[in-house]
């Protein structure tokens, strides 16, 4: 995990539907013009629309990065379980992840980053992610480095809070600026396709990004935060990479 300097991650979620894709494309183009690649959070259910898959592939070719966003649509009630995966056992999490991974890989969108809506993730879920080849698990306020087995508290700035719309937009801009000026190693902005409906919010995100870049932040995707040293996966007939003399117990 990078630890020196200020990095800026801008993520986009809620992708899907023709109108949403149009908004997402305009936003992605605006960010690309600023030299900012996006981390594109996608749930497997959203990939049932070929237009979404095609758009994600085009954006990946331009430097944006896909992130598996939960496992919704793979199994019944799977999303609700991953929304609160505090007690999820390793075996069950592994089954869901295998199915979700297969959906992304079949569309050429393989990834090493998983995004979850909850911050309290069970040890079983983290083990399943690690064993499935993921290097990073991103939550709203934490990042789990699955290879170093370390947890970093880094809030993602979003349009929430008790204030009115003007106050929320102002808080996003000022919060981003303060994070960069404080020299924090990472600043995160999380934007939804629904946010892009509001001109005030689009302007607030653009202002926040411009301010961060002007103050020296370096734009990265979640993929660039994953350590390149990838632990080898066990092969069939082995346990942890060590030959198993009894394949029936593998």
What does it look like?
It is a single chain. This protein is of the alpha/beta class and 250 residues long. The protein has one domain (7-224): Glycoside hydrolase/deacetylase (TIM Barrel, Alpha-Beta Barrel). It has seven helices and twelve strands. The protein has helices at 18-33, 50-61, 78-83, 90-106, 123-131, 165-181, 199-214, and strands at 7-13, 38-42, 65-69, 113-115, 136-138, 142-145, 150-153, 156-157, 186-192, 218-219, 238-239, 242-243. It is globular. Residues 231-250 have low confidence and may be disordered. Residues 228-250 are annotated as: Disordered. It comes from Actinopolyspora saharensis. This is DUF2334 domain-containing protein.
Put the structure in a nutshell:
By secondary structure, this protein is α/β, with parallel strands linked by helices. Helices cover 37% and strands 18% of the residues. The strands form two sheets. Strands 1, 2, 3, 4, 5, 6, 7, 8, 9 and 10 form a ten-stranded mixed β-sheet that branches. The chain has a two-stranded antiparallel ribbon with strand order 11-12.
Number of structurally distinct domains:
1
Mean pLDDT: 85
**Helix content percent band:** 25-40%
Radius of gyration: 19 Å
Query: Overall 3D geometry?
Result: globular
- Structural category: alpha/beta
Give the helices and strands as they follow along the chain: EHEHEHHEHEEEEHEHEEE
Largest sheet: 10 strands, mixed
Number of helices, counting only DSSP H or I runs of 4 residues or more: 7
E-strand count: 12
Share of residues in strands: 15-25%
By CATH reckoning, the class would read Alpha Beta
Label the CATH architecture: Alpha-Beta Barrel
CATH fold node name: TIM Barrel
CATH level-four homologous superfamily name: Glycoside hydrolase/deacetylase
Organism: Actinopolyspora saharensis
Protein name: DUF2334 domain-containing protein
Region (Disordered): 228-250
């Amino acid at each position: 995990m990078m630890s020196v300097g200020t990095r800026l991650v801008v993520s986009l979620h809620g992708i899907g539907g023709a109108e949403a894709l149009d908004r997402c494309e305009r936003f992605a183009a605006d960010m690309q013009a600023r030299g900012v690649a996006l981390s594109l959070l996608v749930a497997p259910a959203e990939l049932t629309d070929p237009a979404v898959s095609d758009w994600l592939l085009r954006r990946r070719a331009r430097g944006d990065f896909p992130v598996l966003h939960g496992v919704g649509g793979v199994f019944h009630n799977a999303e609700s379980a991953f929304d609160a995966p505090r007690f999820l056992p390793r075996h069950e999490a592994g089954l869901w992840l295998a199915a979700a991974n297969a959906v992304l890989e079949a569309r050429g969108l393989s990834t090493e980053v998983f995004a979850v809506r909850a911050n309290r993730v069970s040890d079983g879920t983290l083990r399943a992610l690690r064993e499935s080849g993921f290097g990073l698990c991103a939550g709203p306020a934490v990042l789990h480095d699955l290879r170093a087995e370390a947890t970093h508290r880094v809030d993602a700035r979003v349009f929430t809070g008790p204030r009115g719309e003007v106050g929320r937009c102002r808080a996003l801009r000022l919060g981003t600026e303060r994070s960069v000026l404080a020299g924090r190693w990472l600043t995160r902005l999380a934007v939804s396709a629904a946010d892009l409906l509001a001109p005030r919010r689009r302007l607030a995100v653009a202002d926040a990004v411009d301010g961060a870049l002007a103050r020296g932040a370096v734009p990265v995707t979640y993929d660039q935060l994953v350590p390149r040293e990838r632990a080898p996966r066990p092969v069939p007939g082995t346990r942890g990479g060590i030959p198993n003399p009894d394949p029936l117990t593998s």
